[in-house]
């Protein structure tokens, strides 16, 4: 059993090293947050509603005129992840929004390394 726990811990640490670090910031209601998903960029904000946080994300592809809007209502503890694929062998760019406590947590990667590289 101890070897199995040690293996699982080592595996989790390896994933963190390969995936790179994640930076998390909390935003308040109506505070806009810039989103950068490589070829897509835009803003996100939320409002407080009786059934949860109404998250609105508006993204525009580089060089495009028409934006795309995502709307989700997050109850406490719920989250949503936006992701864009990258080149073969590179991890996807992801932004995760989580209704946590009295705020919305926004998690973005700290310069994700290429597959096979180890983060500092």
Describe the structure.
This protein is an alpha+beta fold and about 120 residues long. It has one domain. The chain contains 1 helix and 8 strands. The strands form 2 sheets. The protein has a 4-stranded antiparallel β-sheet with strand order 1-8-7-6. Strands 2-3-4-5 form a 4-stranded antiparallel β-sheet, with no helix packed on it. A hairpin with a 2-residue loop joins strand 2 and strand 3. The two termini are about 30 Å apart. About 10% of the residues are buried.
Number of separate strands = 8
Contiguous helical run count = 1
**Based on helices, strands and strand pairing, what is the structural class?**
alpha+beta
Q: In sequence order, what are the helices and strands, one letter per element?
A: HEEEEEEEE
Poorly predicted residue ranges: 1-20, 112-120
What Rg, in angstroms, do the CA atoms define? 17 Å
Give average pLDDT, whole number: 77
Largest sheet: spatial strand order: 1-8-7-6
Termini gap: 31 Å
Helix content: 10-25%
Largest sheet: 4 strands, antiparallel
Anisotropy-based shape = globular
The overall number of domains is: 1
- Beta-strand proportion: over 45%
Give me the secondary-structure topology.
Layout: H1 2-19, E1 21-27, E2 33-37, E3 40-49, E4 52-61, E5 68-74, E6 79-84, E7 93-100, E8 103-110
């Amino acid at each position: 059993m101890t070897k199995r726990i040690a293996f699982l811990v080592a595996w989790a640490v390896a994933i963190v090293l390969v995936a790179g670090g994640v930076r998390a910031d909390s935003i308040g209601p109506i505070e806009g947050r810039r989103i950068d998903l490589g070829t897509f960029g835009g803003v996100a904000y939320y409002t407080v509603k009786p059934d949860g946080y109404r998250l609105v994300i508006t993204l525009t592809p580089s060089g495009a005129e028409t934006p795309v809007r995502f709307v989700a209502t997050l109850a406490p503890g719920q989250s949503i992840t936006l992701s864009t694929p990258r080149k073969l062998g590179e991890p996807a760019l992801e932004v995760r929004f989580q209704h946590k406590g009295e705020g919305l947590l926004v998690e973005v990667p700290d310069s994700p390394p290429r597959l096979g590289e180890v983060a500092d």
